[in-house]
Specification:
By secondary structure, this protein is of the alpha/beta class. About 35% of the residues lie in helices and about 20% in strands. Strands 1, 2, 5, 6, 7, 8, 9 and 10 form an 8-stranded mixed β-sheet that branches. It has a two-stranded antiparallel sheet with strand order 3-4. Strand 3 and strand 4 form a beta hairpin. The protein starts with a strand and ends in a 5-residue tail after the last helix.
């Protein structure tokens, strides 16, 4: 039984908020000892599980601009590939398998062939992270053992299931709030909006399962495909967590 689990949602560049959440928790003496993540949450999660401090992760990832993470693909099964992110992970993640991580990690990805959710917890790490982060249409599906995987958020954008009954307390960090949007200037904006709407379907129900649930509404105005506001997004998560911790009737 773990003491404190944390679930990190998908949300593209909004995932920098997870790092602010983790920093605020650590400053409060709360150090999650089990992690579950989808997409951007899996990226933040794998760095943290590998032993990096939240500020160190921010420094590594915020140095890269949008095109450093991506490369264009022939638009047959996706407009972009995640070659840049693959290289970043290979350079910085020291553990090669889930078993080598300092903190247990579960990574959610959608099995496109069978139409089911897959929670990776064993074997090669980087393949699972890229599979979990491949937003449909925007990115090509990622193939592992002949199975096509896309973003875990398609079927489970807040993967609490792997941590239920394994942790005494569970914290949720959700970075994909949806508000009103008036203009849709291009295909990427439409794809982003459609995906964001789809992954919010069961969040209200799931949010009730957490001992602490953080969902900063300010993240609505930030694109999931633009990492260039990383520090601003980090600060939003940090401040939201500080505020949420003060409101808790009983400390975690």
């Amino acid at each position: 039984m773990f003491h404190t689990g944390i679930v990190l949602s998908g949300g593209g560049a909004r995932g920098f908020s997870h790092l602010g959440v983790l920093q605020a928790l650590n400053e409060a003496g709360i150090f999650p000892d089990c992690i579950s993540g989808t997409s951007a949450g899996s990226i933040a999660g794998v760095f943290y599980a590998d032993g990096y401090k939240p500020t160190e992760i921010l420094d590594i990832l915020s140095k890269n601009k949008r095109l450093d993470y991506l490369s264009f693909a022939i638009p047959k099964d996706g407009l972009l590939e995640m070659n840049g992110m693959h290289k970043i992970l290979e350079k910085h993640i020291r553990a090669k398998s889930f078993e080598e991580l300092k903190i247990p990690l579960y990574v959610a990805a959608t099995d496109l062939n069978h139409g089911i959710i897959k929670y990776f917890h064993h074997g090669k790490i980087i393949d699972a992270i890229i599979a979990s982060s491949s937003i449909p249409v925007v990115f090509k599906p990622y193939i592992i053992d002949k199975i096509h995987y896309v973003d875990g958020g398609v079927m489970d954008n807040l993967p609490i299931a792997p941590l239920e009954k394994k942790c005494k307390k569970i914290i949720g960090s959700y970075v994909n709030p949806v508000g009103f949007q008036e203009y849709f200037s291009n295909i990427f904006v439409i794809a982003e909006r459609t995906f964001s709407l789809g992954v919010t379907k069961d969040i209200k129900t799931k949010s009730q399962k957490f001992d602490l649930f953080i969902e900063p509404s300010e993240l609505e105005k930030y694109s999931i495909l633009n990492p260039e506001k990383a520090v601003e997004i980090y600060e939003i998560g940090y401040k939201a967590t500080k505020k949420a911790l003060k409101k808790l009737p009983i400390p975690l």
